[in-house]
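Worked problem 6 (solution included).
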Amino acid sequence: MLSERRLEVLRAIVQDYVGTEEPVGSKALTERHALGVSPATVRNDMAALEDEGYIAQPHTSAGRIPTDKGYRLFVDKLAGVKPLSSPERRAIQNFLDGAVDLDDVVGRTVRLLAQLTRQVAVVQYPSLTRSTVRHVELLSLAPARLMLVLITDTGRVEQRMVDCPAPFGEASLADLRARLNSRVVGRRFADVPQLVQDLPDSFEQEDRGTVSTVLATLLETLVEETEERLMIGGTANLTRFGHDFPLTIRPVLEALEEQVVLLKLLGEAKDSGMTVRIGHENAHEGLTSTSVVAVGYGSGDEAVAKLGVVGPTRMDYPGTMGAVRAVARYVGQILAES
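Solution. The predicted structure is:
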């Protein structure tokens, strides 16, 4: 275990390196921070931190920079979540309150996160598997053609065309709509198949084929594998950190183009807890020079999706964590109220 003083020295090195982009020397540390010890003692502490792999000497300069292991300890033990100021919180609320639908909420969230953190922002759409049904609408387009519209509690809207085996009258359509909604509204998607399995039997023989076709389309919509959608923004922000990436930024950009990679980065949205993965903790080879800060968002304790940012390991962790958490909280409130 590191002593309290050496933890303080590590904190000072991380803060200075993030702020100045320059390797940090013992003289600068003692001048900038009230460490209460001599430069010689700080030099000894830095030597011990280097021996244990928390800092490294990038070149032959006297300065040191944090390693992935050093950033990890900084985040786990030293970095508090920096609270946003009242004007920042108001700006978030005002910007997100103007959203008109789910696509607009996600789009605004991506832009806002990228602006607040000056990193790449990634926002996952609410997952259908963790949603509940708000309403099912059925619209007649032709005697034997319907449109099914599924609306979720998170504001997501899915539309499907249904070709019926026989003409289906308005009265039958209204009856099916009413009976279907009485069974599924407010229920989890996972429960819907069992709730509607005997519904065709309650209709006249000539209508059962159409009712079964509508239900099959509804159930397909609930379990579609293509449901995981993402929006990404602020990629241009990475160009400000060119020297933070060894040799070239290209592997990072290529990794960010792969949706599967991004979904793995954000992780499973099972809870609203915060995840910080640093450098080589990211399994994808192109992202070993980046850090990911992600958190779940939703209308309650359970997350329906995740959002976060990707940037160089030399990032302002307390500020980034604070911004990501605040934005997630506001998005959750909007979904709860929508």
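Discussion: Strands lie at 55-56, 65-66, 120-124, 133-142, 145-152, 157-163, 230-233, 274-278, 290-297, 305-312.
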